[in-house]
Amino acid sequence: DIQMTQFPSSLSASVGDRVTITCRASRPITGFLNWYQQKPGKAPKLLIYAASSLQGGVPSRFSGSGSGTDFTLTISSLQPEDFATYYCQQSYSTLWTFGQGTKVEI
Amino acid sequence: EIQLVESGGGLVQPGGSLRLSCAVSGFSLSNTYMSWVRHRPGKGLEWLSVISDGEDTYSADSIKGRFTISRDTSKDTVYLQMDSLRFDDTGVYYCARTPGRKLHWFDPWGQGTLVTVSS
């Protein structure tokens, strides 16, 4: 299986901050990487697919980049509704895997 | 409008079985992949199983031989048959449409159904 490692596992930030979350794959996955946001008690929501494509309806302050083994999710100016847990997910291999999550807190 | 509604969760004893259902509307199961993903307490998201538009299935090693994904296109419903349940299968189970061709993603998701394995 391809292991996905996210860091940091949690971070504290303030409204207006620029936030970057990193996801590293245990072997190259080209651009087969997606990002999700999950709030407590809610289903996850797709933010970014194919490493850098913004899902429709997702604010443009979210962006994704990377290829191969290293990927980043950036929130350009953190908003109150962005406090949540973020997960990366690879679909390069048949057995899809998520990172362990990054909790963004105040 | 695309909707996914899970049902079938509940309390079950270790070793028992449950069948989860995911009723979909707004699209055809014949044209897309569908997946089950779970979120166990204190842990991250875990992809479990997928069924393709052609009914090919793939499952994570953690559930292989115990859980089975299937679908009934006449009922617009995807199922997850869960047998030999263990304490650590407790969690919220989500179904998700899984569009894409070579690259797949999960969107949208259902609201989730809670499975509790306890004696």
Descriptive tags:
heterodimer; A: 106 residues; mainly beta; 11 strands; globular; B: 119 residues; 4-stranded antiparallel β-sheet
Mean pLDDT of chain B: 96
Helix content of chain A: under 10%
Major sheet details of chain B:
6 strands, mixed
Helix-strand makeup class of chain A: mainly beta
Folded structure, characterized:
The complex is a heterodimer of chains A (about 110) and B (about 120). Chain A has about 110 residues and is an all-beta fold. Chain A is about 0% helix and about 50% strand. In chain A, the strands form two sheets. In chain A, strands 2, 4, 5, 6, 9, 10 and 11 form a seven-stranded mixed beta sheet that branches. Chain A has a four-stranded antiparallel beta sheet with strand order 1-3-8-7, with no helix packed on it. In chain A, strand 9 and strand 10 form a beta hairpin. Chain B is mostly beta strands and about 120 residues long. Chain B is built from no helices and ten strands. The mean pLDDT of chain B is about 95. The interface between A and B is medium-sized, with 24 and 24 residues.
